[in-house]
Amino acid sequence: MNVAKNMEAIVVAAAVLLSASCYAMAPAAPALQVANSSYLSPVPAKAVMQIVVVKAKRLSAAEKARFA
């Protein structure tokens, strides 16, 4: 049998076997967990939310072309 002529079939068969074996060894998916409704948030309700402001100028066409 000439291996060079059948190399594509060998690679495809190896890929199929590898993907099937990976799927067979994968752990089972965890069961759906429902959150407990009596959960108390560690952050008080009236806490001040932090705001992040990002200031930057827009790139010109020449600068955009330089990065592309």
Written description of the protein model:
The chain is mainly α and 68 residues long. Helices cover 38% and strands 0% of the residues. The protein is built from two helices and no strands. It has helices at residues 7-25, 61-67. The longest helix has 19 residues, at 7-25. It is flat. The two termini are 50 Å apart. The relative contact order is 0.05. The model has no long low-confidence stretch (mean pLDDT 77).
Structural class determined from secondary elements: mainly alpha
Mean pLDDT: 77
Rg is 28 Å
What's the number of extended β-strand segments?
Answer: 0
State the order of secondary-structure elements, H for helix, E for strand. Answer: HH
> How much β-strand is present in the residues?
under 5%
**Largest sheet geometry:** none
Share of helical residues: 25-40%
Shape: flat
**Count of helical segments?**
2
Task: Indicate the topology.
Layout: H1 7-25, H2 61-67
Short description:
This protein has helices at 7-25, 61-67.
Which terms would index this structure?
single chain; 68 residues; mainly alpha; 2 helices; 38% helix; flat
